[in-house]
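We treat protein structure as text, and this decision shapes the records that our systems exchange. Below, we set out a record of this kind in full and without editing:

***
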Amino acid sequence: MTDLSPADLVIRAALSEDLCVNFGKGLDAFLRGETPDFIDVTTDAVFSAEEKEAHLMAKSSGIISGAVVFKKVYGLIDPGLAVTFYKKDGEGFKKQEKIASLKGRMRSILAGERTALNFLGHLSGIATETGRLTGLLSGTGIRILDTRKTLPGLRELEKTAVVHGGGVNHRMGLYDMVLIKDNHIDGAGSIAGAVNRVRTRHSDKYKIEVECRSLEEVREALSLGVDRIMLDNMTRSTVKKAVKIVNRKTEIEVSGNMNRRRIKKLRKVHVDYISAGCITYAAGNSDFSMKIKPDP
């Protein structure tokens, strides 16, 4: 199964970690297109073929992300289990609201509970925090960008969660956009040196963004006709000066330890993007619980 996406692979790895005595053998079985031997020593002892209904309840308010992943987890455990979501990815939910229901074998419901909830809570937390930050910029035209500060293996899912929260994805990896950073500049001797080498190698195949640490670097990058200038760790007053220098001739991104307080202060500054790594590496989990519906 070499056509698996990183998201599909990490879901299978999570199930192998939770339900297989030998992680490597479990994952190998998945990669061969087989179903591993799942073991839940508690649930397997208490239940056999009993069927039940479970409800997924929100214990906090936020934005859903991970409904599709939740279903994939259970689809790999038991394709016969019925999972119905009442909210779609990207939709808001309120505390105490019923989010989903599951119907089928009790053993299957409980076997996938923690794995599925881990994904849903983490991804919904990212979507929720992204939604909070985009809300701070409502009506300004400024967009919130993510970064590559993601957990290994989870980038595809985490960046999708950012979109569910109203944000925009920056580059996915090092292969889809040129971002000339401080070490590139210092190693090449100048912004011009780095940009010219990139254009010699790639021509106009990739958009070029340059990280600038000073107004002098902003002027140099602008003179080279790059596609976007990143203002790195600049004060609000310096950002305003940079905006005047650029004068809408190229896109502007503001970056560097962005949080709610700093983002609010940039509401009236005419930039295009604010990149915030905190929406993936520091977002809290959304809280959900799964409860078996009692027999009548």
Summary: The radius of gyration is 23 Å. DSSP finds twelve helices and twelve strands in the chain. The first strand starts at residue 51 and ends at 58.
